[in-house]
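for the writeup, i need someone to sanity check this before i put it in the appendix. the sequnce is what the collaborator sent (i think, or maybe the updated version? ugh). structure was predicted straight from it, no edits. if anything looks off just tell me and ill rerun, i have time this weekend
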Amino acid sequence: MYSKTSQVRMAKANPKAQWRSVLNRANHAEKYLRWFVEFCPVPIAMFDRNLHYILVSQPWVKMLGIPRLKLIGTSLYESLPKAIAHRHGLERCLSGGQMHYTAEIEIAIRGESASNFQWDVQPWYNDDGSAGGIIVASHALAEPQTALLKYQLAEEIAERQYLEDAFTKIGTALESANDAICITDKVGQPIYINLAFSDLFAYNLSALQKSTNLRPLFTDEQTAQVIHTAVMHGGTWTSEIEMCDRDRQHIPISLKVNPVKSPSGEVIGIIYICTNIRDRKAAEAEINKSFAALGATLEATADGILVLDANGNIIICNQKFVDLWQIPDRIFRSNDDSYILKYVSKRISSSQYLHQFGKGLESDQNSFEIVELDDGRTLECYSQPQNVLDSCAGRVWSLRDITERLAAEALVRASEEKYRLQAEKLEHALQELKSTQSQLIQAEKMSGLGQLVAGIAHEINNPVNFIYGNLSYADTYTSELLSLVEIYRAHYPEPVEAVQVKLEEIDIDFMADDFVKLIGSIRIGAERIQKIVQSLNKFSRSDEEGCKSVDIHEGIDSTLMILQSRLKATPHRPEIKIEKNYAQFPDVECYAGQLNQVFMNLLTNAIDALEEDAQAKGTWQIVNDKPQWNRQDGKVSKILIQTEILADPQNSDRLVIKISDNGNGIPDELRNRLFDLFFTTKPVGKGTGLGLSIAYQIITENHGGKLSFTSEVNKGTEFTIEIPLKQSN
């Protein structure tokens, strides 16, 4: 005994048997009609209004010697060119002008001698009474040969075999389809389901055959009946509904229902095509959430947002846009895009792009402009194209009311004179301070006066740097504000009395000319610190991004310049000598700023080691009336920097940089942890344990190189950097 599941699997494994059942049910009536036509003593053929074959009897096939499959769907004149001579009579039958037409025609069968046939032609009619085509009965005036009949019979057998194979292939294709497919007979009884249908609804064919119209699959049985009735009348039904599986779990389905018709046009069954759209529905829900978030974001922004499509229609606009333009409710609720945009255009007093909503802009061009409205407000307007697949899909406009900001800028202009006087006072104070400094140096009354003056000069540099950093903005703001004043004076040559009095009081022409000169004077004074800033930029490489080809020696020298104060002699240690042994090689491709950080960390550690060694083994002494650092071992603190190229025949050449000191060296027990994160040998508060760890990461990970060291106690330490001359992409 086989279980129901086994029976279902066996049925599905034999789609040919399924389709034979469908064929038997669907073409039952047609077979009787075909047998009736084929057993008539005369050849019969049925044609549509275009004189294309619909149905042919076997005697007709034998008469022409052409297989049925090659006739169906083709024109009468293709198989019988001489029939064109009777075109007028055939067309009169089609039009209803003649109920019967008789003609004699000569037919040549497969190159044999021609035989004469008599045709009896009459029209056939649709259900609405209109002529659907013609039926032709042919009476042979000569008997066909026996050999020809045998040959035509063999062709008929081959044709039947072809149809059977075709149905088998169709069944296999349906079993492989992703959509769930069910076929019912004309009363709604399921006669076939594919594997996808069984998997989706958890039903086998025998379970479904206990009901009609697939009622268990619908949440409402009335829906099943409505669909069945509509399709049985020759219509189709398409919709997205919820259906139920065997466990009554709801499944969102895209359902397409089509009739199965016989060649005569009779509905003999129904085919249900079900597509599971659960994933699509989930995606749509996520998209709706995204749109909701986008809408909330647009409403939360301080700018008015307007999105137009390529045809100038409104896609999105937020409430801020409506409030910004004070669009009346009757206009906005009209949903007439041209009416709304026309109202917006009328409110613009001056604009280059916005009044035409970007019609003069290129498809890839952004725009920025200041727009003035008829009520005196000023808007800052920015637009950006939205391109999809290299074609312009529309444009996004962002508008912000800057009326209050412009008023604040006017107050800034009013206070510029105050800032100018303060700058003059600061410059005067600086001159007095320099004079006082000169007097103190010349008098030499206090030994520590130089340090005091240096400290004061350092404090002065801070406001000078602040002024220099803001000079470019001050220059830009001044030019823009003065330009705005000139625009106002050009468009409003006769201002109100209060403005006219103020213009005369401050002498605007003199102030505009003198203020530009004032900023130039301040810039010259501030440029005194330019060289130091340039050196710092070389070290940090703040103006460069990514991997660049640079001069490594320049980076080392800029790092040494920054550390110059630590290399000079102090009351606590002697001067540290720097020896450089540079090789000649081209620029190296690297991350310059990161590499300079490595140099800084290694040189700082070397200086710390030399300071510690010097403080432990030496002191300052007066020799020949001059202070001199004295050590019993006579060692001179020294750092040696060497560069060379390491040739590699198999790979690209590599750069080797060695930085060594003659300090105390690194104890053996600490060497394995030297590159560990947060490990340091320095006192608490002086070292973080990050320097060597970061340096190791920069060399090995970012540059694909190596960072190693060798050390000998009481003799010193040497760090070796090895990186390729060119970085691989």
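The mean pLDDT is 77. The first strand starts at residue 44 and ends at 48.
thx in advance!!
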